[in-house]
Amino acid sequence: MEEFLFYIKLGLNHVLDFGAYDHILFLSALTLPFTFKNWKRVLVLATIFTVAHCTSLALSVYEVVTMDVGLIEFLIPVTILLTALFNFAYVYKKSLDVGLFLHILATAFFGLIHGFGFSNYFKMLMAEEEDKITPLLGFATGIELSQVTIILVILIIAYVVLNLLNVKKTIFIAVASILIIAITIPLLIATFPL
Q1: Contact status, residue 177 vs residue 87, Cβ threshold 8 Å
Q2: What is the pTM of this model?
């Protein structure tokens, strides 16, 4: 049980680490089009992301797939940028039915990429572990709990901006997405593979 709790804490710290804010940016971009009325949809997307993230960790830990770290470090901000850009489909369509299937597929694919970004460190941690399932489940639990926390914060911010400040939803999504894109561009430049 102590080991399981250790990996839950590791998962929490992995996502909520402000020094490595890529997860926070991605989840913020993912959550922006949604409100409390649609909390189930965004929770499903976050869970799909968690499952994909932990799948890539498992593939790495069991040495089924090895990825180029430099490429993954570049692809992570690409996923954030694409998610923020995808939000403009919600701005112009003004409906949550915009490519939901595509959104699910993209979220799963992006989860795989983000998981590979952490896989080398996670693989080193688990090098001495015989039981790899318990750490993976603990880590997945920590990731999911931290993602729910971030989603809740973004939904609260959206509620305040939309209902208390009376900002139009499309303006909120557009401005917040542009801000995320502006924060992501330096990450893209810094990680661009030469």
Answers
A1: yes
A2: 0.89
